[in-house]
Automatic annotation (TrEMBL):
PANTHER family: THIOPURINE S-METHYLTRANSFERASE (PTHR10259). HAMAP family: Thiopur_methtran. Belongs to the class I-like SAM-binding methyltransferase superfamily. TPMT family. It catalyses: S-adenosyl-L-methionine + a thiopurine = S-adenosyl-L-homocysteine + a thiopurine S-methylether. It comes from the Eukaryota. The keyword Methyltransferase applies. Keywords: Cytoplasm, Methyltransferase, S-adenosyl-L-methionine, Transferase. InterPro entries: SAM-dependent_MTases_sf, Thiopurine_S-MeTrfase, TPMT. GO terms for molecular function: thiopurine S-methyltransferase activity. One of its GO terms (biological process) is methylation. This is thiopurine S-methyltransferase. GO terms for cellular component: cytoplasm.
Length: 230
């Protein structure tokens, strides 16, 4: 049997999941946490924001936020996910080649998705981000890469006015190896607590357990954190 800690860190694994349409992690609706707490992401500011989507896939959330007037920047490794996002939402786009990425840009320029390795993305490409929606990025990674991810994404943050919504799962990982992985409060504090204020703003039992053992345990929670400047 393939070691999950190896398989899930392999970029080819995710490409194969998309090729086989094994993308149960993709939501076909706007995430209810985002819809409910959008004011916290924008800090109750009605002006248009630039919102960053790490590991963006083809999230419908991007199209929804763009329809509200916000500017969207995503990073996604799998090219098919980028293509599907634009095609399925009937958004015309162009593709250009940059140093480390293919850049998918909507015709109006409001949505930009960088197709390539997240760890190659830096502030050469975009200005620092004040607003971040992380649904499925941190939890997609095993523990060692979560440290690397947290260190890298912080280099993309604005030094002030940060609003980072982090969607996580909390469960006994002996019952399910992931992904999505369990990321508990103590780990979130360890990864981000030295520089950022951390608040739990939503916690509820997740109603779609990842396997039967988790279903029987009835102990799978989805939690939403807000990270902001201290």
């Amino acid at each position: 049997m393939t070691n999950p800690e190896t398989t899930y860190t392999d970029a080819d694994y995710w490409s194969q999941r998309w090729e086989k349409n094994e993308i149960s992690f993709h939501k076909s609706t706007i995430h209810p946490f985002l819809e409910k707490h959008l004011d916290k992401l924008t800090n109750n500011n009605e002006s248009q924001k630039q919102i960053f989507f790490p590991f963006c896939g083809k999230e419908l959330d991007m199209a929804w936020l763009a329809s509200l007037g916000h500017e969207i920047v995503g990073v996604e490794f799998v090219e098919a996910a980028c293509e599907q996002f634009f095609n399925e939402n009937n958004i015309k786009y162009t593709v250009s080649i940059l140093k480390n990425f293919k850049l998918f840009t909507s015709q109006n320029g409001k949505i930009r998705i960088y197709n390539g390795d997240f760890f190659n993305f830096n502030l050469e490409y975009e200005k620092a981000f004040e607003c971040v929606w992380d649904r499925g990025a941190l939890v997609a990674l095993p523990a060692d890469l979560r440290v690397k991810y947290a260190e890298h994404i912080q280099t993309l943050f604005s030094g002030q006015n940060l609003r980072y919504l982090l969607d996580t799962y909390d469960y006994d990982q002996e019952l399910y190896p992931g992904p999505p992985h369990s990321v508990r409060m103590d780990e979130v504090k360890k990864l981000y607590g030295l520089k950022y204020k951390i608040e739990v703003i939503e916690s509820q039992i997740h109603n779609r357990p990842f396997n039967e053992r988790l279903k029987e345990s009835n102990n799978l929670y989805e939690k939403l954190y807000l990270l902001s400047n201290i």
